[in-house]
Design brief:
The protein has 6 helices and 9 strands, in the order βββαβββαβααββαα. The chain is an alpha+beta fold. The strands form 2 sheets. It has a 7-stranded mixed β-sheet with strand order 3-2-1-4-7-9-8, sandwiched between helices. A two-stranded antiparallel sheet has the order 5-6.
């Protein structure tokens, strides 16, 4: 693995669940190592089904340069879940979905069944396809912090090596952290 791997990190923009707007932004930040190179974005439906396809299209536009795809969890715009297996299958780049907290899958399933009684199984498929949720530690300004991740197309030890190279003082990779900060501006 190179010292300054090129990654694209994704997060969603801020949004209000009960507003008239049915859309939010999917923000992608390309970084070489921890240095920001570019920002891309597209609109996704809140609680929709289009985040996977929109993310794939954004990556394909930058495919030549990207080595790793990083996301802030697998949920964007409320419950607009991305399917990691499909993304990896279509772009053939390692993908890692990172979260700061361990996921309570029973609570997530309960919320999906309640909110999407007729279509929750499609959204649950994204969770199942994400695979195991792994735990590791990242060095931050305050010491070691736990992070959790799903991954496709990359070994666990390689994810840990990558995180050492793309995290500065945050437990989130810099590309994901910057996408999160940019998303707060919307």
């Amino acid at each position: 693995m190179k010292d300054n791997p090129i990654s694209i990190g994704f997060d969603d923009a801020s949004f209000e669940l009960h507003s008239e707007s049915k859309f939010t932004q999917l923000i992608g930040v390309v970084c070489q190592g921890t240095r920001m190179v570019s920002v891309i974005r597209d609109e996704i439906n809140i609680d929709g089904y289009d985040a996977t396809e929109k993310l794939i299209n954004l990556v394909k536009k930058n495919r030549k340069h990207i080595q790793y795809v990083l996301t802030h969890s697998i949920t964007f715009g409320g419950f607009n879940l991305v399917n990691l297996r499909q993304i990896y299958s279509e772009i053939q780049k390692p993908i890692i979905a990172i979260t700061e907290k361990e996921v309570d899958f029973d609570s997530v399933k309960k919320a999906l069944v309640h909110k999407f009684p007729k279509t929750y199984t499609k959204k649950m498929r994204c969770i199942v396809d994400a695979g195991n949720l792994y735990e590791t530690e990242v060095t931050t300004a305050g010491g070691f912090s736990k992070v959790y991740f799903h991954c496709k197309g990359i070994e666990i030890r390689d994810v840990e090596d990558l995180l050492k190279k793309v995290c500065i003082d945050s437990k989130l990779p810099e590309s994901v952290r910057l996408a999160h900060l940019i998303g707060k501006l919307f």
